[in-house]
Design brief:
4-stranded antiparallel β-sheet; single chain; mainly beta; 7-stranded mixed β-sheet; about 0% helix; 11 strands
């Protein structure tokens, strides 16, 4: 079974940093794309960033470009979202998702499997 498990969410002050992890299982590294999404209370889910594990290409939403970066560890089949210069508006539940066709997009409907989410709260 395809499984994604996020971790690393926490309460952090504005200007702080967090690294979120997404541990993937049930499919092979290099065959898919991983996207990160977030949903704040009362708001729609937003695509944040994605990485194509076949070639390492990435894409970032304008709202996080320059502050968030992606990395991955092929040996662990784990993906990371490094968040820096956090703002209160970054407060949300963060989800990772897998697109088994391998396309790196920020559209949630392109993704086939989802994790349970990890909460990030940025205090002002």
């Amino acid at each position: 079974d395809v499984q994604l498990v996020e971790s690393g969410g926490a309460l952090v002050p504005a200007g702080g940093s967090l690294t979120l992890s997404c541990a993937a299982s049930g499919f092979t590294y290099g065959d898919y794309a991983i996207g990160w999404f977030r949903q704040a209370p009362g708001k729609e889910r937003e695509g944040v960033a994605c990485i194509d594990s076949t070639d390492g290409s990435t894409n970032y939403a304008d709202s996080v470009n320059g502050r968030f970066t992606l990395s991955s560890d092929s040996a662990k089949n784990t993906f990371y979202l490094h968040t820096n210069s956090l703002k209160p508006e970054d407060t949300a539940v963060y989800y990772c998702a897998a697109d088994l066709t391998g396309w790196c997009t920020l559209k949630d409907y392109d993704y086939d499997a989802w994790g349970q989410g990890t909460p990030v709260t940025v205090s002002s």
